[in-house]
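Moderator note: this is an archived Q&A kept for reference. The question asked for a predicted structure of one protein chain; the sequence and the answer are reproduced below.
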Amino acid sequence: MLTASNLAKAHGPRTLFSGVTLQLAPGRRVALVGGNGVGKTTLVEILMGDQVADSGEVHRPKDLRIGYLPQELPGVSDGTVLEEVLAGAGPVRELADELHRLEAAMADGPDEATLAAYGEAQSRFEQLGGYALEAEAHRVMAGLGFAPEDGDRGVRELSGGWRMRVSLARLLLSDPDVLILDEPTNHLDLDSIAWLGEHLQKWSGALLFVSHDRDFIDDVANRVVELIGGTATEYVGGFAEFVVAREERLAQLEAAARQQDRQIAHVERFVERFRYKATKARQVQSRIKTLEKLERIAVPDRRQLVARFGFPEPQRSSRVIAELESVDVGYDDTPVLRDVNLVIERGRRLALIGPNGGGKTTLVRLLLGDLEPTAGTITRGSNVDTAVFVQDQTEAMDPARTAYQEFATAVPDPGSRNLRTFLGSFGFPGEAADRLVGDLSGGERTRLALGKLMVNPVNLLVLDEPTNHLDLPSCDVLEDALTAYPGTMLLVTHDRHLVRSVADGLIEVRDGRVRFHEGVDEDVLAPRGTGTTTRRPEPKRTSGQKARPAAVPSPAGKSSGAGQHEARKQLAKVERQWEKAEARVAELAAQLGDPDIYDDHQRVRQLADEHDEAKESAARWLTEWERVSARLE
């Protein structure tokens, strides 16, 4: 178990956070959320031991194994994909090497000591699941989108995104006690995200991950820690529970702050009124000391949670933006997409989905005119003004410019528009606009690049993974803007929440084919079980034939399945109640640990009684959890 107590960290005069307490225990899957620049990565590095906190402490057992996937690409290996993934197996891999060495020694004539060493090593290797290691490596690689033949490819041949997948596969195979992932979904497609979510749901160790993907957080996390306003607040449940609990907490804090303000105003009026009356001097001094000692209730600024921006009105384009008829397209006589028939009309908001490497980028380049078809015809509309966002736009920025200076390069003639006001809506208000680009985080640079893209009126917006490196508040900002955007939109993203919020149709690019789906069909957006078959052909169907399940369960099997489903729902419900009861016990214990309350004996007795009741409640929920677990098993 990894525990952190009262951590504080400052950069110069700016305090990133203080009083942060966190516990990573087996089975605890914690999502760390918060705005760009609030200190999420710094906190992770302190937990890892790569940075030292200004105060507080981190306890790590000596034998604790921590696995970490950073956002930045690690060093490139010279080996093959399979060799790099297997290298993560650690002790099992070392035992495999030892077995090979002993086998070579026995080939020259085995002696008794070598045979004994080989038998002991083989037994240990079998206990650790060594003979299934390569099969497990292939399973993990397939889940992350690798084809079987990719195992023999050199890691240096791969793009940055696929190298990150190799690092993730290696990390998962190593099975550490504590797994820490920084934006693990950034380089994955929808199929691989679905597989990873299912894999992490079963993770038996401790998990801490930073993510902006609401669906992924909901699928994986059983706790959410929000870092905001220099403090960390822990919520029990997934993202949906976090949003509800956060709003309740904000409302409670705001009400308490208003009540405190009224009390302070009342005391200040008393002091001002009786300051110079000798008969009231003692009471006045007592109240002044009370005000000096009073700890003000801090309410997180809601502006940190939500911001707004909009688009200028673009010119009207033709009704049809692009029409493709029986189009084939590829590179160097190698076809990528075949027989594409597609019409994109003005005002549509279409999301391109499908596995990485399936042809989404090729289709976008074809639509934009960067590629021409090798067969078939493509007709592009008139009066189409296009703006394209790609990830490497952030790398083209001048680190020596301020955010405002960089933003102004996109608007040679601002006219009557106040660029600082517009830039402020992208999260750079006031002095933040004068920060150097080189000092901005990856998410802040992405926001600045999006601002440069959106400040000018266009009627066709093409966005390639715009939410990568964005924090949750910035994702909300982007979602609001795209909802209000009046033009045509093509969105390439793995963020299922964003697709549901802004898209009115799906273009599925898979296995060299392009299929259009009206509306957002959940079965298409997040197909179950595709994580391990991202590149295998789908079964052919005759026209009009509907997909059928592989097997139809018997009535008895259906009843049993329904009973298990209900039991799992009940188990999840009981587990949430148990965790809430545990949180209440911890909260009351913290209050009882405050020495200042022991002047109020009635309050101490009340807290002690509540603490006992909370412990009894937690014990009851634990008993119920064990009962439901046994029934489910």
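Archived answer notes: The longest helix spans residues 555-592.
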